[in-house]
Amino acid sequence: MSEIESTLPRRQLGRYLRDLRLQSGMTITEAAKLIEHGSSTLQRLEKGTGRVRVLDVEALCRVYGADETTTAAMLGLAQQAKVKSWWHDFGDLIPQSFDVYMGLEAAARNFTAYNVELVPGLLQTADYTRALVRSGYPEETAADHDRRVRMRAQRQILITRKTHSATVDVVLNEFVLRRVIGGRGVMSAQLRHIADLSTRPNVTIRILPFTAGVPSGRLTGPFIVLGFGDPAEPRVVYVPIFTGDMYLEKEEDVRKYDQAFQAIQHATLDEVSSRNMLRQIAREYERER
């Protein structure tokens, strides 16, 4: 059977199913036999290039012992397997508690991002994250908040590990530096943390000052372009929106965001000046405490 066109939902489904299989301790041959398919069929499904049947996905989740939330998420991805420009409506086909982006982020090898309002998750300190989750999830317990903070910190290993660390190229609007999250002490520590990260060889951080205006001529909002280090897997644009997430992988869409990022980047401070601004504003927060 020939391979069919890969899409983001199909590839993500394959990754999650492979993780579930490995966690169960099964080989591809063992799992395929239990759902009465050949090994090659399951291999293609895990690679994101096989035909997706909802009944097969449901059977695999049952065989792997997946919980209710994970099973619902897998079935939601299966139902959207053919979609290339994908709008993930929170709580629709996929449960709101299942973080699709986190799985995508874990597979990425490079990130290009523009942030307008908040420090991106990969650069956040624990106190900054905690301030956000307390205000964003007031109904949760302190233990739930701590779990979210730990999860965010674990994700940052992607850029801080000694080998195979991801490459990050981030532009922060000056507004991100001036918006006070968690108090002035938290902001001072956060900006120093970003400045320190920017000295790493795999991390590039530039500031778009207020004086730069709107370099691209249009407001883009925040976005992240993710690359996976594999020519067979196209880059994906991730656009977070209040009621859901948008994932774009059509070449024309990715090209437009590349052009927007280049225009924004052209108007930023250079890396050294950006680092100096981060530390200068951190000192201002310290003096104002």
Structure, explained:
- With 289 residues, the protein is α/β, with parallel strands linked by helices.
- The protein has helices at 8-24, 28-34, 39-47, 54-64, 68-79, 100-107, 126-136, 142-155, 157-160, 174-178, 184-197, 251-266, 271-288, and strands spanning 86-89, 110-115, 167-173, 203-208, 223-227, 236-241, 244-248.
- The chain folds into two domains: 8-83, 434 Repressor (Amino-terminal Domain), CATH 1.10.260.40; 100-288, 2-Layer Sandwich (Endonuclease, Chain A).
- It contains 13 helices and seven strands.
- The protein has a seven-stranded mixed beta sheet with strand order 1-7-6-5-2-3-4, sandwiched between helices.
- The mean pLDDT is 89.
- It holds the Pfam family DUF5753.
Sequence-ordered SSE layout with sheet pairings:
Layout: H1 8-24, H2 28-34, H3 39-47, H4 54-64, H5 68-79, E1 86-89, H6 100-107, E2 110-115, H7 126-136, H8 142-155, H9 157-160, E3 167-173, H10 174-178, H11 184-197, E4 203-208, E5 223-227, E6 236-241, E7 244-248, H12 251-266, H13 271-288
Parallel strand pairs: 2-3, 3-4
Antiparallel strand pairs: 1-7, 2-5, 5-6, 6-7
Helix pairs in contact: 1-3, 1-4, 2-3, 4-5, 7-8, 11-13
